[in-house]
Amino acid sequence: MALRYDTARFEASYGSAEQLPEPTTPEVSFVGRSNVGKSSLLNRLVGRKALAKVSSTPGRTANVNFFDVDGVSFVDLPGYGYAKVSKNERQRWADLIGGYFEQERSFNLVVALVDIRLEAQKIDREMLEFLKEEELPFVVALTKADKLSKPKQQHQVAVLSKQLGVPRSQMVVTSAETGLGIDELRRRIEDACL
Question: What is the pLDDT of residues 51-69, one digit of tens each?
Fold first, then answer.
């Protein structure tokens, strides 16, 4: 069974954890640092240019955005770790992400996005530690792979697997530009939700 990604539509946006609706459908949540390419990847997954707003300025997703994809909720969480917003705003994002994960939700899959070009960032390691501790099912989407050659991609997968403490089998090399890894990511989402 496959999801009909072309049915994707924006549902709602919430600025505080208290506003989040009760979950009634399977949920796939997307987390990652502010400039990791979350909106671009979401758009590529559903085959749409502008379902999730893409900005050249990182840190634009400031709320929790819900999208309905054929009866599955795709939950776009605010990017974390962006330095150019006020301390209060960063705290609000942290409360929002934390508040979301503290709720009783269906957490079918968490897609944790990590930039394949970089060493593992402390904030990414903390997020993955949290997902492991909470025993939440997750997959690591290594983004922006089109910026690296194939051998360099493979090298980075090995490096990040070690640094993040995540087996390679739990990682998918992706590119929102070329579509690399998108089918594999869809398969993981469908396995978790259908």
Answer: 877 655 555 557 889 999 9
CA-closest candidate to residue 68, choices 6, 8, 2 = 8
Task: Work out how many domains the chain is built from and give that number.
Answer: 1
Can you give the residue range of the structural domain that contains 19? 5-193
Q: pTM score, two decimals?
A: 0.91
Give the CATH number of the domain where residue 112 resides: 3.40.50.300
pLDDT for 66-115, tens place per residue? 999 999 999 998 887 655 667 776 677 677 788 888 888 989 999 999 99
Q: Assign 3-class secondary structure to the chain.
A: CCCCHHHCEEEEEECCHHHCCCCCCCEEEEEEECCCCHHHHHHHHHCCCCCCCCCCCCCCCCCEEEEEECCEEEEECCCECCCCCCHHHHHHHHHHHHHHHHCCCCCCEEEEEEECCCCCCHHHHHHHHHHHHCCCCEEEEEECHHHCCHHHHHHHHHHHHHHHCCCHHHEEECCCCCCCCHHHHHHHHHHHHC
